[in-house]
C-alpha cells in the first residue's frame, strides 16, 4: 500500500476502478486519462524550452514571441577596395551594404577603412579622427572621398562638355540674318 501512495505522489494519473457492471474503464475515465497525459507532455515540453537547442539553429516558429526565428547571419566581409575610381567604388559599396544589411552600424567605418589605401586612407582617417566607432563616421568617410575623388569625376564631365560645345561652335558659324551655316 505504501508503494501505491508513493506512486500517486509523483502526479501519475489516477484511474478509478471500473464499475462492477462494465468490463473496463468508462469512456469518461479514458478521456480524463488522455487529458492528464497531454497536460503532462505539454509541461515536459515547456520545461525543456520548447524543444529548441542552444545553438540557435533549427529555425521554426518561436511560440513565446509568436514570430519566426531569424536565420543566423553570415560573417560580415570587408568593404570593397578603393582603387581610385570613386563612382565604381560607390556602386560596389552600395552592393556591399545591401548584402550586409543587418550589420552593426558601428562596424561600417572600420570595415570601409580596411578597403582604403594610400591617400584615400589618410583622408578618411583625418576626417574621422578618433570617432571610428561612431555610426555617423561611415557617412563622413564616404562624403570625404566624394569631395576629393568625386570632384575629379565632375571635372572630367565638365571637360567633356566643354570639348563637345567647342566642337559644335566651330562647326556652326552665325551669319547675318540669323542663319546658321554648316
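Sequence proposed for the structure above (182 residues):
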Amino acid at each position: 500500500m505504501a508503494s501505491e501512495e508513493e506512486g500517486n505522489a509523483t502526479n501519475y494519473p489516477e484511474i478509478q476502478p471500473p464499475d462492477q457492471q462494465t468490463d473496463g474503464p468508462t469512456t469518461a475515465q479514458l478521456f480524463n486519462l488522455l487529458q492528464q497525459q497531454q497536460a503532462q507532455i505539454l509541461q515536459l515540453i515547456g520545461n525543456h524550452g520548447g524543444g529548441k537547442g542552444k545553438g540557435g539553429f533549427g529555425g521554426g516558429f518561436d511560440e513565446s514571441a509568436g514570430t519566426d526565428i531569424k536565420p543566423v547571419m553570415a560573417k560580415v566581409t570587408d568593404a570593397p577596395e578603393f582603387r581610385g575610381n570613386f563612382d565604381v567604388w560607390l556602386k560596389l559599396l552600395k552592393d556591399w551594404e545591401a548584402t550586409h544589411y543587418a550589420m552593426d552600424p558601428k562596424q561600417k567605418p572600420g570595415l570601409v577603412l580596411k578597403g582604403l589605401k594610400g591617400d584615400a586612407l589618410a583622408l578618411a582617417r583625418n576626417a574621422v579622427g578618433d570617432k571610428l566607432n561612431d555610426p555617423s563616421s561611415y557617412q563622413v568617410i564616404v562624403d570625404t572621398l566624394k569631395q576629393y575623388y568625386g570632384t575629379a569625376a565632375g571635372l572630367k564631365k565638365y571637360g567633356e562638355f566643354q570639348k563637345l560645345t567647342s566642337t559644335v561652335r566651330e562647326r556652326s558659324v552665325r551669319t547675318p540674318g540669323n542663319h546658321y551655316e554648316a
